[in-house]
Each structure stands twice: as C-alpha cells, then as structure tokens.
RNA sequence: GCCUGGGUAGCUUAGAGGUAAAGCGCGUCCUUGGUAAGGACGAGAGCCCGGGUUCAAAUCCCGGCCUAGGCUCCA
C-alpha cells in the first residue's frame, strides 16, 4: 500500500502503458479494473488483479500516470496462481482459527510464495497429524464458496478490529505512517488485514495441499520469537497438483544423498562427526577423475603444485586478517602454549610460500595450485549432505603477478573455467562484481583491474551482468553461475583479484627498475569445491555419470556359468577401463537389471555365440544393444569416449 | 543456534507397552539361463546414546547426539 495518491479534484486524464507498449488514456481516479473495462468488457469482468510496474495489486487499486499496467485474469497463469494461493493461505488461517482456540492463536503473515503459500501463527501447537484435519476444513471453506470481500478501513477502525492481534497491530503501526486507510479481506465469518489481491470467492480455489510445518522467526529475525509456519500449495486443477507432487518426488529421486548411498560414493556418519564426509572407493574414483581433469588443465597452464598443512599457528591467521574477520567460522584450539587453527582458506599458506624467497619481475607470473582441504565451522542447521559441509576441498589456485599481467592471466583462467563447464554440458552466466564501499587498494589499481576484467568479458560472446559494489573488499571478481539439469543455479568457479593479501604479507618482486614492487594476487577455482561440484554432478546426471567419470565403466555379463571363462578373458581385454564381471548365479535378466540399477554405462554380454565367434554383444544404459561387436572396435570407441570426456555413452547412439 | 518431523538388519521401510517384521542385497543349494526380478533354505538387529516411569520400554517421559525440511520472495 505505498501507491502515490492520484491527483484529486480534477477531471484530469492520465495514461497507462499496456504490455504491448500502447497507451491507454483513463480518468485520473481510474482503478485497475476500470482500465480493464476500458480495454474491453470481457476483460473487465474477467479481471482478478493487476500488475502495476511489476507489482501485483488488487483490481480496486487506482492506477497512476505512466504506470505499466498488466491485467491479471483467471487464465491459470503464474500471476493468477499467486493470487489464488494468497486466498488459499487465508483459507488456511480461517481453518486454523476454526479448529484451534482463536483467542490463543495469533495471526502473523500469510503470503504466496513461488511454490505455494504459508501462514505464520503464534501460540499454535500443531503436528503433522493435524494437517489432514486442517486440510478437510479448508476444503469445506472452499466448498462453501464464500465471497471474498474487500473493504477499505480507517487506521483507527483497523486498530479496533485488530486489538487481539498483536502482530497485525505491529504491521498496522508501520502502515499508519504512510496511509490513511488500510484494506481488509473478509470471507464468511473471517477477516484479515491484507493488501490483496484475492480471487472473487473461496470456491475459485482448486486443489489445496498442506505440505509441512516449520518454525520461522517473526520477520525472519532470530532475535524475535519463533512462530509456527504451515506451508501449503494450491493449483487450479487437481492434475496440476499431482504434477507438482510428482516433480517433488523426481527431485527427491535425484537427491545426491540418496544416490550417494545407493552407489556407495560417500557417507557422513554419526561417529565421525557432522559435515565431515567420508569418500568410499567408488566416490573417490569419481573425485580422482575430476582431480586429474583439473590437473591436466593446470599443467597446460603452467601451474606448480604445492601442498600445505591443514592446521597452522594462528600467527598466520592474524597476518592474513582471517583472525579478525573470520574467526567465528574457524576451528581454533590450543596446543600447549600456542594457539592453532584449521585452515578455512588456502591463500595464506600459498602467500607464505611465495614470501619465502625473492622474486624478479622475470619470474612472474608464479602460479600455485593445490587441492586444498579447508575447514569452516558453519552453523549446524546449515549443514546438508555434500552441499554444505565442515570440511571440503578447493581446487585452489593462487597467482602472483605483475599488474600488467592481469588481463592475460584472467583470460587464461576464464578459458579453463569455460572448458570445465562445457565439458559437463552446463549452461552458465558470468557476472562482474565491482568495488564495494569498504575496500583496500588505490583508486588507480581498482580502476585498472575492473577495466581489464570488463574488457576480458567484452571480448567473450557471452553476456554478463554487473554486480555493482559486490566485489570482495580486496579486489574485483568474476563469478560464474551455472545451471544443472533440473534448472537449479549454482555458484562455483570464480576469478578474484586481490590487492590486500600482498599488502598484509608484504609480498614483493624486483622490477626492471631495480625497485621493489607489490605483486597482485589472483585467487581462482575451477570447480569451486569438489564437494559441492560432486554433489551437483550426482544430481545433474542422476548418478548416471559420463563414461570417463563412472566408478564402474563396464560390466561383463556371462549368459551362463559355461561362459565365465570367456567373460574373464573379455574383462582382461578391457583392463584399461574399470570393468567388473557379474559372476553371480542368476539369470541374464537379473544381471541386466542389476547393471542398470547400478548405473553402469555399458554392459558386455557374452554367451556361446559370442564365445564361438570371438566377439561380444554391447548394451548401453539406454537399453540399446548390438550383437557381433568386434572387441578392438569397441575398445577404440571407449578410448575416444573417455579421452574426449563425452557426456553420454554413444557407441550405440550414432 | 532456533522450530517441526525422523533415527528399527548392509539398503528401503513396517511395527507404537507383552517372543522384533517385510522387500532388496548377502550366503548355501537346486537351476545354466539370450536381453529389466526362476526357485528353496539360511545368516544378518546394542531398535541412535544416557537417564526415568513400569512387573514389563524399540514403543511412554526427560536430556543428549545425528539427520531432513524451515527460519522476512514484507498485511
């Protein structure tokens, strides 16, 4: 309710801009609904709400001159769904107040969300078992088809109506500063302070499902009291709700914790501690391939590998500034008279290596790489599978360069990053984060660095965003965001310039002029962290890894025990790959099913026919098959598929 | 950290004061199979940990640990 009041007392005409760019001239006091009728009576009667300059508003809302207006109708579109879900959240609150003591229960807020809606209550004691009953009550409210009436009320009257609702009063007090009136929405015996918009009647709400109960702080602030939040979702049609629930089940099926367990990739155990993953042989096999890939890229780009310990005296963290800025997230402990800390980042260690000798401008750039395990003490509630852990490994790289080398080094790193992302078929976006208010380094070097980053980005085909003031305090950076197979966005790869660490470590090199100069540091990671990237890959591929990554690449299935000898012979032929023989006593059908369930990219089937002809049958995970395949031909194909890191088993897919 | 669920066999789960279940997997045997589950038998469980209530606790109560989802997309 922060609209600018229309100019009053005149017959002025104003104009709003419609989605097609045309202008519609209306009376100065026209509402969204009036505009819709102006366009056409059909549209007018279908109007549910409006969008003014992108904000969803009630159809009774007055428009203002120059506003971009969009009419929301009950066309089942995204905006309509939002409106309907908002109404559904009111039905939830109404149902709760009917079923529970409404003198006790206090209403907070109940907005729609991207996936549904929620309503927050204080003093409400419910558990999952109560949801069915509440849902039944909501259905009764929908069935009753109450008209949803909007009413404008003075602040004073609103105060009276809300005298038993402390949270509503708190909100009202804020609105009172800017508005003379507020609006209520009423349905049946129930009403709520609400800006809307809502559908015309509760009967318009299609299928509703309550999803879960969670705690939420009033206004999201952990200093405030914890309230009870009930999440739900609503759709126009029952079938849409079914699709939604089906999609949720799909996402669960891809869950890396589930697949990681099934495929024996990793475990996080009670005895070993929270957020501290253990990698099992199949999981480490995948990680090893990922490491080798980066190692190849690093070697091509002239990086030198270094290694640093997991724990350092806190003297180092004082010098690097982590002790002042990062101590809350660090594991710090005393040993004898000294204080130590697990490393939360690898850069100070690398800076200490660089600092240990003197350098000429001719030596630069110096590029250090390390798969460095770091430890960050995240809040317990934030830990989750491999995506948020206490210990993780960064494919870290730190470069010590001359200022004139920034451009070429950044370019090289960006080539490496795009190489990585394209290898996994990941779509990505880039963003340039510029100087924040609090920062170190001279204006001159910031400007130069930002210009150089910008010009590198300009030279690429890809679009990029500018995130103004979002850079690190020590330098500007380019971040990559990529999207997985089910459309979720992840951060990971990054290139960061750093003018701070060289200062703190007093790093220097001798220039052509025989004077000491300060090098610039670049921090870069191609994956980000192995944990996060691994997790994303598991879900991205649903555990069906590309051939080069698959823990088990080939499985030989003998048709009967008579063919076991030949099966082992064939496995020997493919020993350069990760190959197993299914020597269990069971039928071919079972063996195929097991290989499929284990997500093995290729099955080699051998029976009497193959043994007699000295060839094999090949079956892939798409259940395509080919008989009479020559061993060498398949071997050559697999070598190429592996070496080119192709994402799908394509021997049978040409 | 806080809120709401959950922790039972290697895995997925059922059981809710009175002898601990099922499917998958595993072992032995029968079977020797031709493209997504052949059959029989069997082994396998400190029911997360510690206290309490009770004649009796996996189950109820209290505390802890771990885990899942939440924790301002502003009425």
Automatic annotation (TrEMBL):
Domain TGS per the UniProt entry, residue ranges: 10-73
Ranges for domain Aminoacyl-transfer RNA synthetases class-II family profile: 286-546
Catalytic reactions on record: tRNA(Thr) + L-threonine + ATP = L-threonyl-tRNA(Thr) + AMP + diphosphate + H(+)
GO cellular component, one term: cytoplasm
Main localization (coarse): cytoplasm
Keywords: Aminoacyl-tRNA synthetase, ATP-binding, Cytoplasm, Ligase, Metal-binding, Nucleotide-binding, Protein biosynthesis, RNA-binding, tRNA-binding, Zinc
GO BP: threonyl-tRNA aminoacylation
Superkingdom of origin organism: Archaea
Pfam families according to UniProt: HGTP_anticodon (PF03129), TGS (PF02824), tRNA-synt_2b (PF00587), tRNA_SAD (PF07973)
Region described as Catalytic: spans on this chain: 255-546
Cofactor: Zn(2+)
Enzyme class: ligase
PROSITE patterns referenced in this protein's UniProt entry, alphabetically: AA_TRNA_LIGASE_II, TGS
Subunit record text: Homodimer.
Family: Belongs to the class-II aminoacyl-tRNA synthetase family.
NCBIfam families: thrS
Name the record gives this protein: Threonine--tRNA ligase
Species whose genome carries this gene: Halobiforma nitratireducens JCM 10879
């Amino acid at each position: 309710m922060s609209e600018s009041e229309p100019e009053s007392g005149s017959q002025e005409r104003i104009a709003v801009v419609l989605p097609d760019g045309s202008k519609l001239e209306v009376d100065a006091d026209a509402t969204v609904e009036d505009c819709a009728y102006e366009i056409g009576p059909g549209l007018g009667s279908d109007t549910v709400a409006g969008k003014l300059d992108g904000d969803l508003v009630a159809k009774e809302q007055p428009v203002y001159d120059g506003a971009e207006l969009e009419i929301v109708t009950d066309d089942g579109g995204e905006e309509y769904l939002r409106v309907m879900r908002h109404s559904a959240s009111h039905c939830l609150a109404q149902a709760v107040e009917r079923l529970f003591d409404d003198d006790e229960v206090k209403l907070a807020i109940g907005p729609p969300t991207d996936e549904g809606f929620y309503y927050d209550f204080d003093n409400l004691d419910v558990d999952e078992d109560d949801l069915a009953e509440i849902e039944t009550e909501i259905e009764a409210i929908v069935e009753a088809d109450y008209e949803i009436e909007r009413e404008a009320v003075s602040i004073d009257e609103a105060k009276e109506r809300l005298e038993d609702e402390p949270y509503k009063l708190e909100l009202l007090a804020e609105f009172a500063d800017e508005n003379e009136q507020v609006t209520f929405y009423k349905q049946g015996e129930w009403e709520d302070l609400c800006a809307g918009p809502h559908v015309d009647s509760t009967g318009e709400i299609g299928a509703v499902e309550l999803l879960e109960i969670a705690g939420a702080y009033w206004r999201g602030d952990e200093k405030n009291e914890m309230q009870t939040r009930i999440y739900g979702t609503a759709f126009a049609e029952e079938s849409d709700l079914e699709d939604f629930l089906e999609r949720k089940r799909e996402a669960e099926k891809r869950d890396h914790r589930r697949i990681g367990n099934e495929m024996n990739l990793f475990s996080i155990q009670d005895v070993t501690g929270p957020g501290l993953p253990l990698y099992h042989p199949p999981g480490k096999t995948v990680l090893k391939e990922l490491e080798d890939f980066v190692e190849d890229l690093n070697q091509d780009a002239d990086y030198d590998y270094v290694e640093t310990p997991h724990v350092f005296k806190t003297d180092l963290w004082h010098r690097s500034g982590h002790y002042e800025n990062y101590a809350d997230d660090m594991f710090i402990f005393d040993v004898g008279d000294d204080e130590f800390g697990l490393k939360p980042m690898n850069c100070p260690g690398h800076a200490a290596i660089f600092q240990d000798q003197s350098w000429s401008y001719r030596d630069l750039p110096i590029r250090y790489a390390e798969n460095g395990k770091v430890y960050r003490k995240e809040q317990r509630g934030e830990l989750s599978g491999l995506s948020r852990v206490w210990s993780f490994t960064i494919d870290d790289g730190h470069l010590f360069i001359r200022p004139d080398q920034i451009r070429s080094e950044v370019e090289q790193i960006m080539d490496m990053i795009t190489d990585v992302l394209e290898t996994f078929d990941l779509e990505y976006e880039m963003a340039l984060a510029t100087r924040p208010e609090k920062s170190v380094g001279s204006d001159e070097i910031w400007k130069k660095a930002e210009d150089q980053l910008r010009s590198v980005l300009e030279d690429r085909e890809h679009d990029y965003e500018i995130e103004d003031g979002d850079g690190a305090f020590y330098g500007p950076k380019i971040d990559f965001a990529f999207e997985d197979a089910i459309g979720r966005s992840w951060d990971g790869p990054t290139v960061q310039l750093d003018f701070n660490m060289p200062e703190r470590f007093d790093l220097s090199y001798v220039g052509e002029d025989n004077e000491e100069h300060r090098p610039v540091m670049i921090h870069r990671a191609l994956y980000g962290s192995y944990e996060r990237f691994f997790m994303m890959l598991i879900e991205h591929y649903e555990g069906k890894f590309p051939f080069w990554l698959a823990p088990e690449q080939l499985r030989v299935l003998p048709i009967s025990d008579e063919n076991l000898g030949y099966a082992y012979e064939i496995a020997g032929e493919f020993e350069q790959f990760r190959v197993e023989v299914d020597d269990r006593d069971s039928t071919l059908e079972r063996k195929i099913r097991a290989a499929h369930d284990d997500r093995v990219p290729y099955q080699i089937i051998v029976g009497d026919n193959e043994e007699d002809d000295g060839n094999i049958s090949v079956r892939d995970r798409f259940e395509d098959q080919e008989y009479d395949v020559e061993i060498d031909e398949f071997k050559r194909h697999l070598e190429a598929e592996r070496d080119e890191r192709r994402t799908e088993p394509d021997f049978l897919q040409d």
